[in-house]
Task: inverse folding
């Protein structure tokens, strides 16, 4: 890129930064105000109260429990993705016959199937299987809908491994399984961490499947807890926003420590 | 295919490059799992659209009744219009901003990296969290509009159709512009510097090289981004549910929300399935078009020929 600064673009970017950052700042500030204090100073005023009671309150209305449920869903979804996607990507990249390329196209098509479009039959199937209002019922479709993108990302990174390496292993008599564990997996670590982060994000932020497939408070995940909190205690804005912040913390931590994987994963969705 | 059962080794051409290639069996578990939760339901939704089912008991076939009813349903027809408006407004506002921000963020300057790091935060958040946040921020009594009456009038942004659609468009932009910016940032970084050098030698300034080098080079990303906006906008649901609940009245009820309403509030799963099928067909058609257009399925690089 050129070294000459582009002032017009810089100003535009700073305005956009304000549009992004001010709401986040207002949110964070409000969570440390009392409800009465927030009511008095409003969203933009300088706070004159300070309290942690909103976070304590969020815990007491069940967010600690929702948090645990969401962790269970997220870990399970990641586990399913990590078990299923690498062999599939390996086959897509290395076994280039008609059937596998058909499967790959199927997954590409799957990218476009909106979850809303199939939510009614999924509700039917999950109820039929007796998994309604059960975290397993949320985990299974969430994992299934993470597969297409993860396959796309991982097969992209497995494709970067030069065929000569596989051929060298084959000449030495290695079976496909051995080449998978000794070559494909170790050399696609970047792609693997990307799909882990990406599927975790999908599961953590998922809303539609929990909304439709669970009902009771004991099986509520955090996004649904937010929605529920809003319908029940919508006027307690500091309390509500504290719950929103709580739902964001793990994701922000991931962003801090695994930014590369995350950004690459999201770019993978765009197909670069 | 013939290699179906051979998990070990497919040695059709011994000594050739096919030695040590994995069999189709490697692809089976993921395919079965995905088929069960995505492909089977897709077939199912088509069948259910010809039935009447209230969520209990077994669905009963009722021919094309649901489709006929839908074609005459004023809310359904209105919802299609609202969906188109929301999608178009989304594309028109998000595309230019994302391109500008993406190209800007593609520079390697340190301050740009810091700014982009903050600007990407919304794409980490769930749409539930974003909607709840904005619902609180635009609350008529305790939110920002009440404090800036010169800008927002009486402050009840969700009280009118124009206001509700404006809010949905704005929040959609807040949520998705960072994502599309990321796509364009990646693509802009991949543009070979030699093209800019050539443009500079030919006397092109910043603006000209933006329009004559950057924009044409971003063509593939634009297609991808556009399709994601189309499919995403078509099925926008979480934000509609949490921010406006389709209201006031049915003034912001888009097709995806109407489907939810029919199914899970009205327990008319047959009609809901018909709406879902419409959404699925449109979304899949759009994506098929793009798969062709970008050569995704042929596993080609976008950088080919450069």
Result:
């Amino acid at each position: 890129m050129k070294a000459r600064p582009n002032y017009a673009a810089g100003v535009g970017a700073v305005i956009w930064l304000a549009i992004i950052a001010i709401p986040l700042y207002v949110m964070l500030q409000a969570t440390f105000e009392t409800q009465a204090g927030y009511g008095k100073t409003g969203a933009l005023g300088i706070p004159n109260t300070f309290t942690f009671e909103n976070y304590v309150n969020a815990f007491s209305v069940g967010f600690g429990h929702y948090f645990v449920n969401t962790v269970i869903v997220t870990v399970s979804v990641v586990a399913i993705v990590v078990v299923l996607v690498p062999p599939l990507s390996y086959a897509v990249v290395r076994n280039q016959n008609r059937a596998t390329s058909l499967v790959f196209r199927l997954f590409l098509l799957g990218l476009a199937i909106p979850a809303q479009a199939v939510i009614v039959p999924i509700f039917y199937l999950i109820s039929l299987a007796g998994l309604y209002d059960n975290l397993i019922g949320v985990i299974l479709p969430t994992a299934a809908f993470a597969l297409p993108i993860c396959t796309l990302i991982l097969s992209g990174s497995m494709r970067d491994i030069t065929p000569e390496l596989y051929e060298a292993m084959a000449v030495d008599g290695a079976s496909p399984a051995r080449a998978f564990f000794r070559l494909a997996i170790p050399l696609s670590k970047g792609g693997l961490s990307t799909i882990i982060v990406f599927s975790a994000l999908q599961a953590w932020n998922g809303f539609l499947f929990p909304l439709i497939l669970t009902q009771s408070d004991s099986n509520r995940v955090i996004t649904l807890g937010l929605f529920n909190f809003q319908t029940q205690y919508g006027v307690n804005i500091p309390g509500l926003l504290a719950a929103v912040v709580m739902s964001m913390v793990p994701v922000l931590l991931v962003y801090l420590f695994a930014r590369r994987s995350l950004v690459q994963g999201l770019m993978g969705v765009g197909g670069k | 295919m013939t290699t179906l059962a051979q998990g070990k080794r497919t040695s059709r051409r011994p000594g050739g490059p096919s030695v040590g290639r994995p069999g189709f069996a490697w692809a089976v578990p993921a395919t079965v799992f995905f088929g069960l939760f995505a492909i089977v339901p897709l077939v199912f939704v088509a069948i259910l659209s010809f039935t009447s089912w209230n969520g209990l008991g077994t669905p009963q076939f009722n021919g094309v009744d649901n489709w006929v009813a839908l074609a005459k349903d004023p809310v359904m027809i209105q919802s299609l219009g609202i969906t188109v408006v929301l999608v178009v407004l989304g594309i028109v506002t998000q595309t230019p901003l994302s391109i500008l921000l993406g190209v800007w963020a593609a520079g390697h300057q340190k301050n740009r990296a810091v700014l982009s790091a903050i600007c990407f935060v919304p794409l980490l958040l769930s749409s539930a969290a974003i909607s709840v946040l904005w619902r609180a921020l635009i609350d008529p009594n305790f939110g920002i509009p009440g404090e800036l009456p010169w800008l927002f009038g009486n402050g009840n942004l969700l009280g009118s159709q124009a206001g509700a659609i404006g809010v949905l468009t704005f929040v959609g932009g807040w949520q998705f512009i960072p994502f599309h910016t990321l796509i364009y940032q990646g693509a802009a970084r991949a543009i070979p510097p030699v093209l800019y050098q050539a443009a500079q030698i030919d006397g092109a300034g910043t603006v000209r090289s933006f329009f004559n080098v950057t924009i044409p080079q971003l063509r593939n990303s634009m297609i991808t981004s556009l399709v994601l906006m189309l499919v995403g906008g078509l099925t926008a649901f979480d934000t509609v549910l949490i921010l406006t609940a389709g209201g006031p009245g049915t003034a912001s009820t888009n097709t995806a929300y109407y489907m939810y309403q029919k199914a899970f509030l009205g327990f008319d799963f047959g009609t809901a399935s018909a709406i879902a099928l419409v959404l699925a067909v449109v979304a899949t058609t759009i994506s098929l078009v793009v798969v062709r257009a970008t050569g995704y399925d042929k596993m080609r690089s976008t950088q080919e020929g450069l």
Notes: Residues 90 and 170 of chain B are 8 Å apart (CA to CA). Chain B has a mean pLDDT of 81. The radius of gyration of chain B is 24 Å. Strands of chain B lie at 51-52, 60-61.
